[in-house]
Design a protein that fits this description.
This protein is mostly helical. The protein is built from six helices and no strands. The termini are far apart.
Length: 170
């Protein structure tokens, strides 16, 4: 019996320590779980901000591509072929600058943006081909805008699609 009484303080300490260690383990486990959830929420929030920023940038790109905005960009004394070249160059440069935004935008919206860009460039060239009697720049710009207005407003439709998608995301 004397041997057992020597271990009694250790047994008592063990009986007290085991529940404390179990509670400490549960606390640490739940703390780690909550921190992981917090990190996931922060990354989702950050990703949502990136998506929102991408949609804003692409909407701005589309607004700048509208013919009513394009015709105001350059000097009124340049030749039509120079205007077409500079306008196409500006559109392509801005598109290239924003091309990384496709990571955050749906495939369908990105396709619509690319199609809108290509349609504006095609409209520039087809308007030039229609006016083969060497009109002045003001006449070209007028016909260019009228050609856009008489067709489908694909830029406004693409912006509206982007607006709907961003409402779903946020």
């Amino acid at each position: 019996m004397a041997n057992f009484s020597e271990y009694l303080p250790y047994a008592f300490a063990l009986i007290i320590a085991i529940p404390f260690l179990v509670l400490l383990r549960q606390f640490v486990h739940s703390y780690i779980t909550l921190k992981n959830q917090e990190i996931k929420l922060l990354s989702v929030k950050s990703n949502s901000e990136n998506k929102t920023h991408s949609y804003e940038r692409m909407t701005l790109f589309l607004e700048r591509m509208k013919p009513s905005n394009l015709i105001q960009n350059f000097d009124k004394k340049i030749a039509i072929h120079e205007f077409i070249f500079l306008t196409e160059k500006t559109i392509n440069e801005e598109f290239d600058y924003n091309s990384s935004q496709q990571l955050y935008i749906t495939k369908n919206s990105w396709k619509n943006i690319v199609d809108s860009k290509n349609a504006i460039i095609d409209l520039l060239h087809s308007t030039y081909e229609e006016l083969n009697n060497n009109p002045d720049l003001e006449e070209f710009k007028t016909v260019f805008i009228m050609g856009y207005m008489n067709g489908d407003d694909y830029i406004a439709a693409t912006i509206e699609d982007l607006r709907r998608e961003i409402l779903i995301i946020t």
